[in-house]
Amino acid sequence: MKATAVELAFADRYSLAALKTSEVLALSIDQLKRLAERLANDILLFNQQACSSPRSIFWIGGTEDEICSARARFWQALEDAASRFPNPPHAVIARITDAFLLAASGGVSDIYCRLNSFPLRGFGNRITDPERRLHGGNGFLTEYSLDHLAQLASRLCARDQTLVAFGFMSEELVALTRQLPGRAVDRIVGPGEALNFDPVWDGMDLFAVLTREIRINKPVQL
Q1: Residue 24 covered by a domain
Q2: Residue 7 in domain
Q3: Cys staple from 38: which of 62, 130, 181, 191, with CB 3.0 to 4.6 Å?
Q4: Which residues form the domain of 187?
Q5: Would 216 be classed as within a structural domain?
């Protein structure tokens, strides 16, 4: 490298979504459709290969029955929205393979849909390191449920890049950032914004890093 060169490394990252159960249940049919279309873009526009495309969804709050109801209406809407995206045979095989690998590693405990569902989804108890390494995208999502958004902080790690959040107040999201461990999560965005590029990426201000600044101090007075 030249003495004046600058090197930036963008490592493989993992991204997630957090949905407030009560807010999903409160959506009208049209609102739910728009939410599903936005999330489908986030997840499937590049076949879930982008680092910022969510691969796991956390349901926050609600009783067991409420979560089941929210999941049922959400997944139907997301499947409808996903129908406009390509679903080639190799992607079907890849996500089924990933689902079985994650089930064997403990990342997924149940698969609540047909194996040819698009997206395919599996439910787990806790997000694991093997899941982050093994999950290859291709239209596969893992689901988890938590009582409170604050509990999400302890589930995250430095590999996690983007959190797509829906249904939360700004104050709740700020409170979450104060509890994050280390470098966990560099972006919190709304549905439909996961793939939007920003000059601040992976926690780095690219304008600051990639531009040269000459600093001139005040003249010394003798």
Answers
A1: yes
A2: no
A3: 191
A4: 14-210
A5: no
Supply the CATH number for residue 178's domain: 3.40.309.10
- Give 24-32's long-range contacts (Cβ < 8 A, gap of 24+): 24/70, 24/73, 24/74, 24/166, 24/167, 25/62, 25/66, 25/69, 25/70, 25/73, 32/73, 32/74, 32/77
Amino acid occupying residue 102: L
Per-residue pLDDT of the chain (222 residues; tens, 9 = 90+): 788 787 888 888 999 999 999 999 999 999 999 999 999 999 999 999 999 999 999 999 999 999 999 999 999 999 999 999 999 999 999 999 999 988 888 888 888 788 889 999 999 888 888 788 889 999 999 999 999 999 999 999 999 999 999 999 999 999 999 999 988 999 999 999 999 999 999 888 999 888 888 999 999 999
pTM: 0.92
